[in-house]
Amino acid sequence: MWRMAREDPRAFREKIVERIRASSAVDRVPRRAFRHIIGDRQRSKVEILFDNGAFGELASLQNSIEFRCLSRSDRRKVERARERSYLLSSKIPSSVPTSCLGIAPKVIYFLTNSVPYTQSGYTFRSHETAKALVSDGVDIVAVTRFAYPIVVGKFPKRGEDLVDGVRYIRQIGTKYPGSLLNRNELSVKMLLSTIRAQGANIIHTTTDYNNALVVSEAANRAGVPWVYEVRGELESTWLSRHPKEQQESLKQSDFYLAARALETECMKSAAAVIALSEVSRKQLIGRGVNPDKILVFPNAVDEEFIGKTHDRAVLREELGLLDDFLEPDATLVGTVTSIVGYEGIDDLLNAASLTSNISVLIVGEGIDRPRLEHLVQELGMEARVLFVGRQPNSTIWKWYGALDAFVVPRKDTQVCRTVTPIKALMAQALGVEIITSDIPALREITGGLGTYVTPESPESLARALAQIAPNQPRNPESIIWASEHTWKANASRLSALYNDLLR
């Protein structure tokens, strides 16, 4: 933590503020106050260039007179740009073919982050996949990236965690090198040590290229094949964080072009590629990845939630929603999500403001929450919108079940058009009516069984909300659809893939 603070004081301060803002310990502090701690300060030229992916221009500053006049944070960003440019030009070793006929798979699942320290769609998919593989008899251990979870401000009591029968190993040592290149090399060595200790014969990792750089090198040295799971497009996600009017020009930035090229090379070099949807698979084929090695493993749900009997009124009372928020016969819509810009929650709030009878429940946490809470005030919607923050996975289904309709109002961005969320399937498993933006990934993951509205159009969404009645009946077709998408089914197919790679 001291190293992080010294390297980039500004970024470190912003992470700490966001951690505090999202903490339940400050529930009594008006969260809108945090909007003013970070957001309005003047950004330096170096910060703007770095955020816009102009790594070549930044690297050219290193030997200039101007460099000596920069702040410590800006000098570190220049150095980071140089290192990232180097990493983005890396060559990925092709996955090693192997022949281990009759030998059972022993898998290492290399992850960016995980439960219990991070709660997100990413960690939920990873954990449910690993849990289902363990139940299917696969010998699998999860390993998280170098220095996690300390790099996100969480301090583990030990170097391993056992969660629901899944073993997580943490790459935490006594050193935290200042150089990204040195960190990667140390991560490779630690992963190699785990490969040998576990007798692993397959390494399975997920996007992005930072994971692939470590895994491909370790797998190459150990002589084992590796699998690349493409959960999203790094460059598209990066692009979505910028204003829409800048996105087209930023597609020509150093970072965007290099990241897209390296991600494509990672896919081509892996022994097998896993996509989350047919939409994604087609795009990967368009990038030149061999279609024969791309398999689709969609997001899924646990079988226990499919058709689970529940009473909305009872759940609303249990969750405290009837205390000064809802009338017993109110129409309640909402979402369970990470609160970030591309999720389109602002469009949901604006749409609800165009109706007279809709209340909105937002479950989750994220950097966009202060802005959205301010929007609620501007719209005069304080009595009809409730933010409840992040909720435990053990009871999360109840927040879905309390809704008359579940809304996924994602923006029409490249990342949203490709990446399928888990949340819609959970709602469908419970029979909750679905309203989503009409974009390819959402149509695919919901099976065409929802109400689809024009993305980024509060008016279109408001018309759909107006059709939702109190005590909306359960949708039996959605429950059947969800029953065809389970983690158990995915695990069975994954197990078959691992066995195929060892033949």
What do these coordinates show?
This protein has 24 helices and 14 strands. It folds into 3 domains: 2-88, no CATH class; 106-300 and 488-501, Rossmann fold (3-Layer(aba) Sandwich); 303-483, Glycogen Phosphorylase B (Rossmann fold), CATH 3.40.50. The chain is of the alpha/beta class. Strands 3-4-2-1-5-6-7-8 form an 8-stranded mixed beta sheet. It starts with a helix and ends with a helix.
Structural class: alpha/beta
What's the CATH first level of the largest domain?
A: Alpha Beta
Please, how many helices?
24
> Averaged pLDDT, please?
90
In percent, how much strand structure appears in the residues?
5-15%
Shape, principal axes of CA atoms: globular
Uncertain regions spanning at least 5 consecutive residues: 25-29, 35-39
| Main sheet strand line-up | 3-4-2-1-5-6-7-8
Cα Rg: 23 Å
End-to-end separation in angstroms reads: 45 Å
Number of domains: 3
Give a count of the beta strands, DSSP E runs of length 2 or more: 14
The CATH topology of the largest domain turns out to be Rossmann fold
